[in-house]
């Protein structure tokens, strides 16, 4: 199958590659770029393990062709920590509140929460639960994930205010 | 001097040992996307393999034409049973003593069965080629109902067993019959039931479901032609057992096989079995000389690897008029699918189902389980369960509720009346188990007080009146379950899998600078072993948990062990860890005595050091002792500080718990709103409360799923109708309620640190709790039992059947 030229920015780095147009974004990230944080749990938009942030929206990378992401800016869980290695408040909060067990849903979950807390900087518990409904977790029962996201919200707010 | 020594309490806290809610060491990697799961593995020249699967549930495979598939650019090979036959690998042994086709050998027995294995340069070429493999099928009559499968003229499923009247577990009485497993005293039980004041009788179905971890099963097989070494990475809950089985079936010497379980994205029993994908990947790597990766997709996962449950349980429970249970009888029709691939200890073809007398002092009981072949996928794994304990707990907890209705008693009162009393432990059950310890009354009373049980019943009565007056369309249900688990398989004298005793192991090396590495035969799938096993060790040897690395999952380095499932890691490997730690401590004591120039008996262990008895200011810390082990020539002692322990548990452990939930059931929509869940667990000594609570939240959520909607369903033609996450219910954060957790602590008397294991308890207790709540809501209208799962449609139908829709 003929290949097309794709150009995108992933975690702040410009990327160029040749790919079959039918290549799914998740396979491109994982297999071409070696970015294995986003996982595959269903390949059918249900589980959210593959969630990445694209142009300011949460996107399920298993249900998108890399061709559709041409020119986009993508952030994955690997791009959340600060350049000096300081963990993102969400990463800290997930550890602090035991928001993960096997860790398989975690990259997608954190990436989704990262966007959710920008859409709604001080959500209620119900809003967090609703906002994460596209991401499944089989291990935690969500309780500690919700706790972690609620705990990270004010920290992210404070960081934002400090930066402004 | 004395005041210089930090108090023992402070020193103990610094160790982060037993009882500490230590943060998990695993999380630093996982939160940054640095986990290393099997699909993350990328090797030079690696190729992909995937299956052509049968669309039929029962059919003859007349021919397979590979030509068009082989012409696809990038396709390297297409393997069929014919290709595997010369190696003797077209069939493989199952864990249950049966055998299973690796690739369809003349026929298929369930939808999704593996027919051919395509190997290609990348997964896209592989998918293209799969579409082009032409398989000619001749459909055969399908049987998906285990009762119909046992009718005299039922289609013959396993032609390979023709004429075999004896199976791995005794006589077979029909061509689709696998075994009959009986426990207890049938005649005595039937006599009690015949003469009883009150008998409740019910058929209870624990439907077929699936563990569905978020990561599916997969592997990478790499055969190095030059060294003759096979390396197999995979989603294995029992890497050593996989190595032994791989050696036995492939003929490759065991020392030439290295099995590695990398990070595992949840297991819940799904990753215990041996699947055709593993075998085909190994063969393909041998044939092509290249590493081969196989990762199933979600549909493959739900349709083929490892279903759970599917037990039809016919029960009778007898009692006196005043509610003393006098006998329990149960017959199970167990649907095992096309092959008997249940993952149970060899001598237990129905697992530990004979724990079905539960938490009650029942004088006499009988259980018979008939295993049956049907045109469904094989599996029968312990989905967050210790070998059919979930089925047993569901059965008894439903039967007790049904009996309570018959007696006109409150279900809690009936339970309290029949609990095994604290002074009866160790308790010998009528079906042959020796319960190690328990205090059921205390746990139940604590639970009742916590939820204000009386208040709940009063509220329920008011709500019922409002409903009857037409002021409300919703009913309130209170679900109570009290479970006893049996975990920690198990004593080698009666527990083995394929002849491998179910002990487990730990090897510890203390480094000269006082840090350590511990290696175990288990493998974490999210349970946090790297965190908790270090805590056990920290308390045993006085080295901070933060200075101890825990390593699992590599058969080249870890001591032999039977893996992680059935809540066995803490009871078995946790015990091995403590015992190995004690060996270290014993040697450390001798070193300390030498350094302090006293007799061995004159020093005693104190948190992180050995001190002279009566003179605590004279001591040697474990750090100092470790260094001495490597730099001093101590008469009579070998240098170094290492130990290994293989722990064969003397008995199982018996965790228990009291669970209560409150539900509002909308009779017009069938929607059940779970508004309160309280879970009290007694898992003996608590190693890490934070992790225990996390396990409970997760297990309760899986229980909620199973009770309220999750199911592997088939239509009459054997088509799987719940093969995607669209139809297979997994609760999101929205459907999942908030959980209240609580505990009592009744240590196991035979476990070195008194721990019992917890991972599965919430699933065992949770399913009957949720199910009982639904039944309880409809009880005033005459409902005694309805089959799970209680999805909206089925609950609506209950309401409709009871005439609640006017
Ligand atoms: S893998 Fe993308 S949603 Fe499941
Ligand atoms: S932590 Fe395992 S799926 Fe979420």
UniProtKB/TrEMBL annotation, chain A:
<dbReference type="InterPro" id="IPR012675">
    <property type="entry name" value="Beta-grasp_dom_sf"/>
</dbReference>
<dbReference type="GO" id="GO:0051537">
    <property type="term" value="F:2 iron, 2 sulfur cluster binding"/>
</dbReference>
<keyword id="KW-0411">Iron-sulfur</keyword>
<dbReference type="GO" id="GO:0016491">
    <property type="term" value="F:oxidoreductase activity"/>
</dbReference>
<keyword id="KW-0560">Oxidoreductase</keyword>
<dbReference type="InterPro" id="IPR036010">
    <property type="entry name" value="2Fe-2S_ferredoxin-like_sf"/>
</dbReference>
<dbReference type="InterPro" id="IPR001041">
    <property type="entry name" value="2Fe-2S_ferredoxin-type"/>
</dbReference>
<dbReference type="InterPro" id="IPR002888">
    <property type="entry name" value="2Fe-2S-bd"/>
</dbReference>
<dbReference type="InterPro" id="IPR036884">
    <property type="entry name" value="2Fe-2S-bd_dom_sf"/>
</dbReference>
<keyword id="KW-0001">2Fe-2S</keyword>
<keyword id="KW-0408">Iron</keyword>
<dbReference type="GO" id="GO:0046872">
    <property type="term" value="F:metal ion binding"/>
</dbReference>
<dbReference type="Pfam" id="PF00111">
    <property type="entry name" value="Fer2"/>
</dbReference>
<keyword id="KW-0479">Metal-binding</keyword>
<dbReference type="Pfam" id="PF01799">
    <property type="entry name" value="Fer2_2"/>
</dbReference>
<feature type="domain" description="2Fe-2S ferredoxin-type">
    <location>
        <begin position="4"/>
        <end position="80"/>
    </location>
</feature>
<protein>
    <submittedName>
        <fullName>Carbon monoxide dehydrogenase, small subunit</fullName>
    </submittedName>
</protein>
<dbReference type="InterPro" id="IPR051452">
    <property type="entry name" value="Diverse_Oxidoreductases"/>
</dbReference>
TrEMBL record, chain B:
<dbReference type="Pfam" id="PF20256">
    <property type="entry name" value="MoCoBD_2"/>
</dbReference>
<protein>
    <recommendedName>
        <fullName>Carbon monoxide dehydrogenase large chain</fullName>
        <ecNumber>1.2.5.3</ecNumber>
    </recommendedName>
</protein>
<keyword id="KW-0479">Metal-binding</keyword>
<dbReference type="InterPro" id="IPR008274">
    <property type="entry name" value="AldOxase/xan_DH_MoCoBD1"/>
</dbReference>
<comment type="subunit">
    <text>Dimer of heterotrimers. Each heterotrimer consists of a large, a medium and a small subunit.</text>
</comment>
<dbReference type="InterPro" id="IPR016208">
    <property type="entry name" value="Ald_Oxase/xanthine_DH-like"/>
</dbReference>
<dbReference type="GO" id="GO:0005507">
    <property type="term" value="F:copper ion binding"/>
</dbReference>
<comment type="function">
    <text>Catalyzes the oxidation of carbon monoxide to carbon dioxide.</text>
</comment>
<dbReference type="Pfam" id="PF02738">
    <property type="entry name" value="MoCoBD_1"/>
</dbReference>
<dbReference type="GO" id="GO:0008805">
    <property type="term" value="F:carbon-monoxide oxygenase activity"/>
</dbReference>
<dbReference type="InterPro" id="IPR036856">
    <property type="entry name" value="Ald_Oxase/Xan_DH_a/b_sf"/>
</dbReference>
<dbReference type="GO" id="GO:0043885">
    <property type="term" value="F:anaerobic carbon-monoxide dehydrogenase activity"/>
</dbReference>
<dbReference type="InterPro" id="IPR012780">
    <property type="entry name" value="CO_Mo_DH_lsu"/>
</dbReference>
<dbReference type="InterPro" id="IPR046867">
    <property type="entry name" value="AldOxase/xan_DH_MoCoBD2"/>
</dbReference>
<keyword id="KW-0560">Oxidoreductase</keyword>
<keyword id="KW-0186">Copper</keyword>
<dbReference type="GO" id="GO:0005506">
    <property type="term" value="F:iron ion binding"/>
</dbReference>
<dbReference type="InterPro" id="IPR000674">
    <property type="entry name" value="Ald_Oxase/Xan_DH_a/b"/>
</dbReference>
<dbReference type="InterPro" id="IPR037165">
    <property type="entry name" value="AldOxase/xan_DH_Mopterin-bd_sf"/>
</dbReference>
<dbReference type="GO" id="GO:0030151">
    <property type="term" value="F:molybdenum ion binding"/>
</dbReference>
<feature type="domain" description="Aldehyde oxidase/xanthine dehydrogenase a/b hammerhead">
    <location>
        <begin position="32"/>
        <end position="141"/>
    </location>
</feature>
<dbReference type="Pfam" id="PF01315">
    <property type="entry name" value="Ald_Xan_dh_C"/>
</dbReference>
């Amino acid at each position: 199958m003929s290949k097309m030229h794709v150009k995108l920015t992933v975690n702040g780095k410009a990327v160029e590659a040749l790919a079959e147009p039918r290549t799914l974004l998740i396979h491109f990230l994982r297999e071409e770029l070696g970015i294995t944080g986003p996982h595959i749990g269903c390949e059918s938009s249900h589980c959210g393990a593959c969630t990445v942030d694209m142009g300011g929206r949460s996107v399920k990378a298993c249900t998108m062709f890399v061709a559709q992401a041409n020119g986009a800016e993508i952030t994955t869980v690997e791009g959340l920590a600060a350049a000096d290695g300081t963990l993102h408040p969400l990463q800290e909060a997930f550890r602090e509140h035991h928001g993960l067990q096997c860790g398989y849903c975690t990259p997608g979950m954190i990436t989704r929460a990262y966007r959710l807390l920008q859409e709604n900087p001080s959500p209620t518990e119900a809003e967090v639960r609703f906002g994460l409904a596209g991401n499944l977790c089989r291990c935690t029962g969500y309780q500690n994930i919700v706790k972690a996201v609620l705990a990270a919200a004010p920290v992210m707010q404070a960081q934002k205010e400090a930066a402004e | 001097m004395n005041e210089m020594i930090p108090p023992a309490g402070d020193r103990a806290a610094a160790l982060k040992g037993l009882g500490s809610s230590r943060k998990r060491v695993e999380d630093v990697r996982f939160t940054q996307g640095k986990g290393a799961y099997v699909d993350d593995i990328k090797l030079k020249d690696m190729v992909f393999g995937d299956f052509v699967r049968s669309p039929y549930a029962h059919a003859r495979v007349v021919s397979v034409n590979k030509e068009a598939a082989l012409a696809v650019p990038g396709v390297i090979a297409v393997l069929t049973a014919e290709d595997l036959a010369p190696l003797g690998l077209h069939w493989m042994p199952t864990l249950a003593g049966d055998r299973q086709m690796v690739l369809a050998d003349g026929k298929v027995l369930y939808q999704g069965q593996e027919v051919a294995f395509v190997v290609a340069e990348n997964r896209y070429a592989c998918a293209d080629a799969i579409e082009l493999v032409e398989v000619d099928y001749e459909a055969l009559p399908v049987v998906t109902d285990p009762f119909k499968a046992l009718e005299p003229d039922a289609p013959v499923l396993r032609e390979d067993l023709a004429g075999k009247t004896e199976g791995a577990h005794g006589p077979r009485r029909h061509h689709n019959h696998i075994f009959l497993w009986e426990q207890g005293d049938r005649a005595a039980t039937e006599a009690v039931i015949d003469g009883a004041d009150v008998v409740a009788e019910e058929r209870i179905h624990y439907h077929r479901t699936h563990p569905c971890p978020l990561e599916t099963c997969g592997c990478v097989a790499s055969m190095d032609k030059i060294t003759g070494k096979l390396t197999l990475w995979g989603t294995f809950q029992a890497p050593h057992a996989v190595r032994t089985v791989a050696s036995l079936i492939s003929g490759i010497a065991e020392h030439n096989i290295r099995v590695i379980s990398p990070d595992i994205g949840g297991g819940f029993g799904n990753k215990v079995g041996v699947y055709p994908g593993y075998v085909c990947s190994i063969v393909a790597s041998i044939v092509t000389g290249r590493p081969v990766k196989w990762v199933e997709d979600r549909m493959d996962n739900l349709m083929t690897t490892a279903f759970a449950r599917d037990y039809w349980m016919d029960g009778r429970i007898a009692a006196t008029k005043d509610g003393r249970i006098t006998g329990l009888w149960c017959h199970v029709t167990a649907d095992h699918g096309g092959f008997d691939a249940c993952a149970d200890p060899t001598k237990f073809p129905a697992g530990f189902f004979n724990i079905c007398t539960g938490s009650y002092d029942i004088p006499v009981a009988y259980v018979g389980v008939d295993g049956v072949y049907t045109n469904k996928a094989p599996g029968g794994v312990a989905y967050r369960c210790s070998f059919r304990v979930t089925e047993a707990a569901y059965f008894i907890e439903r039967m007790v509720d049904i009996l309570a209705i018959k007696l006109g008693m409150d279900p809690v009162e009936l339970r309290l009346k029949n609990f095994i009393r604290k002074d009866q432990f160790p308790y010998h059950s009528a079906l042959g188990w020796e319960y190690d310890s328990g205090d059921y009354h205390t746990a139940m009373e604590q639970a009742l007080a916590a939820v204000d049980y009386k208040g709940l019943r009063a509220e329920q009565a008011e709500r019922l009146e409002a409903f009857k007056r037409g002021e409300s369309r919703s009913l309130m249900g209170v679900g109570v379950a009290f479970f006893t688990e049996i975990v920690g398989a198990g004593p080698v004298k009666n527990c083995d899998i394929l002849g491998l005793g179910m002990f487990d192991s730990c090897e510890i090396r203390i480094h000269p600078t006082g840090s350590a590495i511990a290696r175990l035969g288990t493998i974490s799938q999210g349970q946090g072993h790297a965190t908790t096993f270090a805590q056990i060790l920290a308390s045993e040897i006085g080295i901070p948990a933060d200075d101890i690395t825990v390593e699992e999952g590599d058969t080249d380095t870890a001591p032999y062990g039977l893996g992680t499932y059935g809540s066995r890691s803490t009871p078995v490997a946790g015990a091995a860890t403590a015992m190995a730690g004690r060996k270290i401590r014993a040697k450390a004591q001798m070193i300390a005595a030498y350094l302090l120039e006293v007799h061995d008996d004159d020093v005693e262990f104190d948190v992180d050091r050995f001190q002279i008895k009566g003179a605590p200011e004279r001591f040697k810390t474990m750090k100092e002792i470790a260094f001495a082990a490597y730099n001093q020539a101590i008469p009579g002692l070998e240098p170094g500080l290492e130990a290994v322990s293989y722990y064969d548990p003397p008995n199982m452990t018996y965790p228990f718990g009291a669970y209560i939930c409150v539900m509002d059931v909308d009779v017009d929509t069938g929607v059940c709103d779970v508004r309160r869940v309280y879970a009290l667990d007694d898992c003996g000594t608590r190693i890490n409360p934070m992790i225990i609570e996390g396990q409970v939240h997760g297990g309760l959520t899986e229980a909620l799923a199973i009770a309220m909607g999750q199911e592997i369903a088939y239509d009459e033609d054997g088509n799987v109708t719940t093969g995607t996450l669209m139809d297979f219910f997994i609760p999101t954060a929205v459907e999942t309620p908030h959980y209240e957790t609580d505990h009592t602590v009744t240590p196991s008397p035979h476990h070195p640190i008194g721990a019992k294991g917890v991972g599965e308890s919430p699933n065992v207790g949770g399913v009957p709790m949720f199910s009982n709540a639904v039944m309880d809501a409809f009880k005033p209208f005459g409902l005694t039992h309805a089959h799970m799962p209680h999805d909206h449609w089925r609950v609506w139908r209950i309401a409709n059947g009871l005439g609640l829709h006017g």
